[in-house]
Amino acid sequence: MHKQYQVEGMTCASCAQTVEKAIKGLSGVTNASVNLATETVQVTEDTELPFAVLSQSVEQAGYHLIDPITHLTLPVEGMTCASCAQTVEKTVQKTAGVTAASVNLATETLQVSFDGTQTSIEAIAQEVSQAGYQLALTNTPSTVSTKDKKEQAIHHMWRRFFASAIVTVPLLYLAMGEMIGLPIPQSISAHHAPVIAVTIQLLLALPVLWIGRAFFIKGFKALIKGHPSMDSLVALGTSAAFLYSMYGTLRVYLGDHAAAMNLYYESAAVILTLITLGKYFELVSKGRTSDAIQSLLNLSPKEANVLIDGKVEKRLVSALQVGDVVLVKPGEKIPTDGIVVKGSTSIDESLITGESLPITKKTGDTVIGASLNQQGSIEMNVTKIGADTALAQIVKLVEEAQGSKAPIAKLADRVSGVFVPIVIGLALLSGLLWLSLGQQSWVFALTITISVLVIACPCALGLATPTAMMVGMGKSAERGILFKTGEALEHTHQVKTVVLDKTGTVTQGNPEVTDIFASPGFTEKDVLSYAAALENTSEHPLAKAVLKKAETMNSELKDVDEFLSLPGVGIKGIIDHESYALGNETLLEEFTGLNEVKLLAKEWASQGKTAIFLVNKQVVIGSLAIADPIKPSSITAIKELKNQGLNVVMLTGDNQQTAQAIANQVGITEVISQVIPSQKAQTIKNLQDQHEGLVAMVGDGVNDAPALAQADIGMAIGSGTDVALESADIILMKNELTGVVQAIRYSQLTIKTIKENLFWAFAYNILGIPVAMGVLHLFGGPLLNPMLAGGAMSFSSVSVLLNALRLKRKI
After folding, report:
1. Cα-Cα-Cα-Cα dihedral of 612, 614, 620, 624, to 10°?
2. CA-to-CA distance for 273 and 160, rounded, in angstroms?
């Protein structure tokens, strides 16, 4: 059982560790994975736990778990009596994920509570519709509320910073002004009026501590729990500074006026203010990392033109039902997934699939919601709504992938989990060493301790991986490359061998008749007419190619009697009282003197074409060459893969000669042919044993699914079957091999950014901690001021986020 929840209050990697440990400690939980960038936790349970149990554990750790239960009141149409209300109520209550449902007949409304991780309001509405009633979706929850929540958090953090800064600036001026020659009235000067000066500093510091109280509440909670976090470091550092200043203030009140010169109120206030500013920039940057998802969501139009009894009625897209007929005019967006029932047009699907050229759509063709109708007006039948649409599935897939953890992120989490306790130990040790061995004052030792605590916060470490993953996955989705997990994104750049299925992957998957040979006394039209007549009853994949050619040449389809399939050979039947057969070379075994026909078939095979023969009694009437055209982009994509030093292998069920011919045309040297579907997975396993590095498999059919699952990285062409898409690690929305090149490149760019982030996060701490401990001071260098440490710590997190956002320009 997998569930995902939002977590509020996390600020660093150690916060994430604390939440993970709190949930993992519960009986029934097998795993918990926190993503700091998305502020979510994915919980795996072997027995279902009540939300209250999970929430209580997280609350005790100092954080807040958001209840995924959505509560809505919606109008119901069509109810006329109490039994109607009972029907609707019971229907909704039986829907998976619904926790409560109550219908009020007087107000004709439904009050429903449901778990958004298990169902959606669209699914509930569908159940109500099947029961014979209509749920008016006027209060549908959407990700806009999530966006609003993020905006509110950003504004709240800015207000915290602004309020803190208003008080901190005069405090800093009063405490430090005289040291740098700024004028300060004698009535409030520490030199001339120490009691008044320290009192004002205390009164100015208290509001800043109150505004930043969240650091202390969460920090000390985590410390008591035994999982100290970034907030713990800030809380310890600023508390030490404030308590020491309180001690100094008490000494001033008791007559020791010299103590007024050794207070740290301004350090505590400035540290809290600067870290709050850093948090503000983090929130803004983290919000931008999910821009790609938001831009996908914004693609969908809000209203649709529904045709009812020949009249057009405006309706919210959220209120559409399966079976509705919608009119889409030129320049409008397709409101949801459906099938064209009238008209033809060109549709731009680039924002969904990454396909740059407009695609012609006619009656019977499927259309994707949120794509742009360019030319003609069409009428479409709604086939999918809400969470079932292609756009919703893409968004869900990307969000789940962004929430998953790559192995490199788990490494950073483990490091940050032990980092904070080590830092606390180093801070205390360095302070004590300066006090005892260095013969320094309490003030000096305290400065050292506070500086180490504040500068070493591992925020940058915790944000290094998830932010880059979010940007990489989001932008890849915009380009039509969908990584289903963080692990897939991380491992793709390690691929050394790419295995390509032939049909539908390297080739278009739509065979065509390319050549027709007619024996003396017959015409090409005769050959095509008889062949099409026989194929009209056949279900063979090549039959469509023959019938399509016959249609283009306006060939007459004759009636066939006594049709019979000849397994492994072909088909036969009676046409105009004579027996005809159509099939492979096995048909020709009883014929002699057919050198011309056989040589021609051999030549076709060398060109990657399949020959079929038409015979009548002892006479060969003619033959047809059928080929599956190569996709125009395949040659370019394969060349790019080989230029990157990758091994490219073609895997097919075709015979060796035909397969080799196709391989020669696209530049592939290693071909594995005549492989039946059940052997494909074993073939991939053999390649994994033979080649170094990871093996990727690219395919589109049901028979590719086992091979996609066996491969280290499975890539499914977006036009493929549901089974293939389900088995793959990556979905290539564009039906071209260039997507393989892009997927590898995007993985390389993302991992490079993650490594850069981790380097700077580690380097910052490795360089910053010794400076804070006073190593430079040993050799006559400067001592790091705690206020500068606070500013530097905040900047490190923001710099990591900005580096992650650079990916947007590269992908």
Report:
1. -40
2. 8
Bridge-based pairing of strands 578-583 and 570-575 is antiparallel
Of the CA atoms within 13 Å of residue 767, those in its CB half-sphere come to: 9
Active-site residue (options: 324, 501, 700, 712): 501
Asked if 379 and 343 touch (Cβ cutoff 8 Å), the reply is yes
Q: What is the CA radius of gyration of the chain?
A: 35
Rounded Cα distance, 141 and 132, in Å: 24
3-state secondary structure of 714: strand
Write down the pLDDT at residue 713.
92
b/e per residue, 588-624, with b = 16+ CB within 10 A? Answer: beeeeebeebbebbeebbebbbbbbbbbeeeebbbbb
Q: Which tokens belong to 454?
A: 């504040």
CA distances from 651 to 507, 546, 672, 683, 689 (A): 12, 26, 5, 9, 16
Quote the CA–CA distance of 7 and 528 in Å, as a whole number: 67
Q: Please answer whether residues 455 and 772 qualify as being in contact, where contact means their C-beta atoms are separated by less than 8 angstroms.
A: yes
pLDDT of residue 417: 64
Burial class of residue 169 (count of CB atoms within 10 Å of its CB; 0-12, 13-18, 19+): middle
Q: Residue 586: what pLDDT?
A: 75
DSSP code per residue over 127-169: HHHHTT-EE--SS---HHHHHHHHHHHHHHHHHHHHHHHHHHH
Q: Give one DSSP letter per residue of 517-541, joined into a string.
A: EE-TT--HHHHHHHHHHHHTT---T
* Nearest 10 degrees: Cα torsion 216, 219, 224, 229: -170
Rounded CA-CA distance 108/75 in Å is: 6
The pLDDT value given to residue 141: 40
* Residue type at position 339: I
Bridge-based pairing of strands 647-651 and 670-672 is parallel
Q: Which amino acid makes up residue 182?
A: L
DSSP 700: -
Shortest CA distance to 320 belongs to which of 114, 71, 140?
140
> How far, in Å, CA of 429 to CA of 448, rounded?
10
* CA-angle at 733, arms to 728 and 735, nearest 5°: 100
Looking at residue 643, what is its pLDDT?
Answer: 93
Q: Which residues of 525-536 are buried (b: 16+ CB within 10 A; e: fewer)?
A: ebbbbbbbbbbb
Output the pLDDT for position 190. Answer: 82
**Structural contact between residues 6 and 150, judged by C-beta atoms closer than 8 angstroms:** no
User: What CA–CA distances, in Å, run from 364 to 200, 339, 343, 544, 753?
Assistant: 79, 6, 10, 17, 45
**CA 94, CA 123: separation in Å to the nearest integer?**
12
Average pLDDT per 10 consecutive residues for the chain, totaling 811 residues: 80 80 88 81 83 87 81 74 67 85 69 79 85 68 52 86 92 79 83 90 94 85 70 80 87 87 82 80 65 64 88 86 90 91 83 62 87 86 84 70 63 68 87 87 83 72 75 83 85 93 83 89 88 81 83 83 78 88 79 73 84 84 89 91 93 82 90 81 90 88 77 82 70 87 93 87 80 85 74 71 81 79
**How far from each other are the two terminal CA atoms of the chain, in whole angstroms?**
35
Helix (H) or strand (E) holding 619: strand 619-627
Q: What are phi and psi of 700, to 5 degrees?
A: -140, -5
Question: Quick one: pLDDT at residue 639?
Answer: 94
Q: Is 526 a catalytic residue?
A: no
Q: Which residues are within 8 A (CB) of 601 and not within 5 positions of it... i.e. 6 or more apart? A: 585, 611, 613, 623
- Rounded distance between C-alpha atoms, residue 368 and residue 313, angstroms: 21
